[in-house]
Amino acid sequence: MYSMGGLAEYCVVPANALAVLPNSLPYTESAILGCAVFTAYGALRHAAEMRAGDSVAVIGVGGVGSSCLQIARAFGASEVIAVDVLDDKLQNAKTLGATHTVNAAKEDAVERIKEITGGRGVDVAVEALGKALTFSQCTQSVRDGGKAVMIGLAATNVVGEVDITRLVRRQVKIIGSYGARARQDLPQIVKLAESGAFNLENAISRKCKFEEANSAYEDLNQGK
């Protein structure tokens, strides 16, 4: 996908990767439907096979993680727990569907998730950062037989550790998820936005001019 152009005025895209944008949706904001929201949808619909009533934790609530919060809410999650280290991101998470927030810099994220779920752990945990620590937190915060879904890309050679005996005995499932299926999923994602089940306005905190790309990437690097 990256070979088709970025920060470009035009690019060539396969026809089956396109979905028609209805007039009711804003042109600029809808750009995230094909990326952040696409990844969140694939993680919860396909990798986690999430069902209504499931409890969900999202570790790392940046662009993709916060999209997971809205998708989890749209799919009928009973509890949506947002985990991050920045209070302003956690505050924002509440407007996107989080029922609980955990600041992992101030408390033990795994313990707190278990506390919220009555000691069980969540049905589905999503790791949206790509760090060894959050990978570990994700695998530890799911219930017996639960699904830990990894969507955060890590730096080269980053390795995550797993408690093997717990993985085996508790039948924990660790699943990697990368995007979704354009032809069948993108039209569904557009419908979620059109119906208001996914709120595009709330998902976007800031818009940058084309000329601000370098400083925007710098801010992205620093977690801003």
From TrEMBL:
Q: Which residues form the Alcohol dehydrogenase-like C-terminal domain?
A: 63-194
* Names of the cofactor(s): Zn(2+)
Metal-binding: is it a keyword of this entry? yes
Keyword RNA-binding attributed: no
Q: Which UniProt keywords apply?
A: Metal-binding, NAD, Oxidoreductase, Zinc
UniProt GO MF annotations? metal ion binding; oxidoreductase activity
Q: Which Pfam families match?
A: ADH_zinc_N
What domain of life does the native source organism fall in? Eukaryota
Question: What SUPFAM superfamilies does the annotation carry?
Answer: GroES-like, NAD(P)-binding Rossmann-fold domains
Q: How does it assemble?
A: Homodimer.
The UniProt entry, under PANTHER family, shows: GROES-LIKE ZINC-BINDING ALCOHOL DEHYDROGENASE FAMILY PROTEIN, NAD-DEPENDENT ALCOHOL DEHYDROGENASE
Concerning its family, UniProt says: Belongs to the zinc-containing alcohol dehydrogenase family.
Protein name according to UniProt: Alcohol dehydrogenase-like C-terminal domain-containing protein
